[in-house]
Amino acid sequence: MSAILQGAGAGAAAALSPFNSIDSNKLVAHSRSSLSVRSKRYIVAGSDEGTNKSFGSSSLIARRSQPLMIPNAVAATKADTASSSTPSKSGHELLLFEALQEGLEEEMDRDPHVCVMGEDVGHYGGSYKVTKGLADKFGDLRVLDTPICENAFTGMGIGAAMTGLRPVIEGMNMGFLLLAFNQISNNCGMLHYTSGGQFTIPVVIRGPGGVGRQLGAEHSQRLESYFQSIPGIQMVACSTPYNAKGLMKAAIRSENPVILFEHVLLYNLKESIPDEEYICNLEEAEMVRPGEHITILTYSRMRYHAMQAAKTLVNKGYDPEVIDIRSLKPFDLHTIGNSVKKTHRVLIVEECMRTGGIGASLTAAINENFHDYLDAPVMCLSSQDVPTPYAGTLEEWTVVQPAQIVTAVEQLCQ
Amino acid sequence: MALRLRSSTSKSNFLNILRYNNLGFGTASHAARHLRTHDPTLLRVSQNPISRFCNTMAEKLSSVGENEDANAQVMDFPGGKVAFTPEIQFISESSKERVPCYRVLDDNGQLITNSHFVQVSEEVAVKMYSDMVTLQIMDNIFYEAQRQGRLSFYATTIGEEAINIASAAALSPQDVIFPQYREPGVLLWRGFTLQEFANQCFGNKSDNGKGRQMPVHYGSNKLNYFTVSATIATQLPNAVGAAYSLKMDKKDACAVTYFGDGGSSEGDFHAALNFAAVMEAPVLFICRNNGWAISTPTSDQFRSDGLVVKGRAYGIRSIRVDGNDALAMYSAVHTAREMAISEERPILIEALTYRVGHHSTSDDSTRYRSADEIEWWNKARNPLSRFRTWIESSGWWSDEEESDLRSRVKKEMLEALRVAEKTEKPNLENMFSDVYDVPPLNLREQERQVRQTIKSHPQDYPSDVPL
């Protein structure tokens, strides 16, 4: 069932993971089967040799007998809307923060070791209501209100994980997790390695980040830039209710420490998600809009700016391919690579600052791996290297706007 | 302002007063949260069985309003009742006398009259002493090995053997240990062999840690000893988390964490103590106050009366113990453990001792302290000699057994060193494994690149790391 292709020399095989293979005949997994090996140097990120060697979650699904698993959105539809393709017609509508809550609640029901800790997560329900109702249902030992010390409760979560719990640590705002950097970098990321594999740290660290509406410089940070270098952690960013729930569940089930980036302005997005249980693959990117002319790589809130720009671009006669990379560490170079090979032009749209952001790393990765396929230099649109101003109009201009995306695409596609 | 009283009960009165005076209590349960803290006898009558925050108003309110005497007025600020005083008084920064230190054996190893201590059986006492001797010999041999260039680095525990071994002896094997880096004695007590210590120090393929950490950064999942992380005091919040986990699972065990006087300055110390108190976590915080943080004496580290007084600031029961008195250490830890588990509370233990050795092999402490001082502590306050006097006077030890033990351990230690030195290092694959549960593609690619480089430049690659 899996399409296994052997690359030459250093190339690796591209195969559908067993988790994808359930419905692979129904879904058009675009480009995967049309891989042609042009260069010895290309790197393929994906599962190897048919056996799933990628991170915990997908192999977990393959082994257990789950109810109908709906694979993530590897859509072939040319729909303009930023929706994930869910084959199921039935479903229920909810907002993104409710989707996160639903995912969290389902995992807490499923596994008594899952617990939540953070500031105001208990009876208050969390500052963005992601943990609403959970303290009443599971008790305030499993949904723990902590005093204000991010380093301490992150450290607590790590210690609890080492003794068998699966904590979901909430940072009230991602920016506050800068205080927890020591624990995240030295203990969370490294202890599995330095202990020789004796101790696993299956924590999920989550919280809202990104530029909001006039929250001020300290509350508008993009922590993914700072955390991306830490060895041993995984980073994912959710952008729709569908992938929010799926990624939350996958992150909790993963044996690795996962940092789940949410965005302050996306919590009230509404979407209909399946009633059946599903999870999303932590290492896969999401095809939002397939296209032929240019690859637009983005994540989190910028996905929506990219899609808005896409509408304008379509009217102007362009056919952009928009990919929500979702997995910030490691990058899904398989999906990205296939896209680059098709379109030969890349535009990265991110909210991180110019220096040292996700876009900077992604640019380097694409140049390194897919240089032969590019017809134009990789372009990256990011925020300026300034603290986010409070003034609304200025703040708007620190964030990449659809108009800029349109201009950039026109420039690249000349 | 008009107070509309809904009923004549004092409870309603009070709620109304709160509401209309806008004292910040929106609901009864909100108020209850602030009122519950100070009184340790507060009965918890819970309406919702899973909720810890219950309405205690019914119990406490009956006493409110009874004190009509203006001089004895109290106010319910968030946190509980506070009496007022018209005199301006500052709490002194230090008490006239320092907190006394619990000890059972005097300087000469004689039992102090009327001392309270937990009785120790002959078997346990002999094992304790033997392990202290073993630790001392191990330290000396490893230290010398580093000086000879056979080991890259080492940090001794000289002078703190009693803290290590006696505390370990008082714990159960299920208690989870979060060490700083000067507590190998706890591992030794639990059965870590000299060979295993040597393997970790040499980073060979038999090491639990697969050769990834520097020497003395031991870890053993099997023995419930969390791998040493070099960062100071980060293990304290980890321990609180583990204690929380043990409490959730209702295990008959506690978390135990060690740190030094220097470590208590880190933010994590304060946060962890605060958290432990609020979470009511069964954790023992054992501070080895050995007088020095590398070259920083305690007078430059903090200005409080040591560590023991800090416990009260966080609402934690604390005790100061003579860390060089093995019996006192044993009793204190044993008692503290029982309290921590049965009462679900953290305990702070300050063990006063002295760091006889250098901070590590990268340090020469004679540069900042007098050699006389070191010598005095090594001779006059030696924890081994004090305990030895006691076990000998109990008829459990003799000179002959001493020399037997020492020669046996020395031989075993040298053999372990020799074997560890000769054992192969872990192979290159271990550089990339365990970063994640399964190596992702980027790491596999990076490993491929390293191997490619090695193939083209084999003479530049270390000869003792197998491929």
From TrEMBL, chain A:
<dbReference type="InterPro" id="IPR009014">
    <property type="entry name" value="Transketo_C/PFOR_II"/>
</dbReference>
<keyword id="KW-0670">Pyruvate</keyword>
<dbReference type="Pfam" id="PF02779">
    <property type="entry name" value="Transket_pyr"/>
</dbReference>
<keyword id="KW-0786">Thiamine pyrophosphate</keyword>
<dbReference type="InterPro" id="IPR029061">
    <property type="entry name" value="THDP-binding"/>
</dbReference>
<comment type="function">
    <text>The pyruvate dehydrogenase complex catalyzes the overall conversion of pyruvate to acetyl-CoA and CO(2). It contains multiple copies of three enzymatic components: pyruvate dehydrogenase (E1), dihydrolipoamide acetyltransferase (E2) and lipoamide dehydrogenase (E3).</text>
</comment>
<keyword id="KW-0560">Oxidoreductase</keyword>
<dbReference type="InterPro" id="IPR033248">
    <property type="entry name" value="Transketolase_C"/>
</dbReference>
<protein>
    <recommendedName>
        <fullName>pyruvate dehydrogenase (acetyl-transferring)</fullName>
        <ecNumber>1.2.4.1</ecNumber>
    </recommendedName>
</protein>
<feature type="domain" description="Transketolase-like pyrimidine-binding">
    <location>
        <begin position="94"/>
        <end position="269"/>
    </location>
</feature>
<dbReference type="Pfam" id="PF02780">
    <property type="entry name" value="Transketolase_C"/>
</dbReference>
<dbReference type="InterPro" id="IPR005475">
    <property type="entry name" value="Transketolase-like_Pyr-bd"/>
</dbReference>
Automatic annotation (TrEMBL), chain B:
<dbReference type="InterPro" id="IPR050771">
    <property type="entry name" value="Alpha-ketoacid_DH_E1_comp"/>
</dbReference>
<protein>
    <submittedName>
        <fullName>2-oxoisovalerate dehydrogenase subunit alpha 2, mitochondrial-like</fullName>
    </submittedName>
</protein>
<keyword id="KW-0560">Oxidoreductase</keyword>
<dbReference type="Pfam" id="PF00676">
    <property type="entry name" value="E1_dh"/>
</dbReference>
<dbReference type="InterPro" id="IPR001017">
    <property type="entry name" value="DH_E1"/>
</dbReference>
<feature type="domain" description="Dehydrogenase E1 component">
    <location>
        <begin position="132"/>
        <end position="428"/>
    </location>
</feature>
<dbReference type="InterPro" id="IPR029061">
    <property type="entry name" value="THDP-binding"/>
</dbReference>
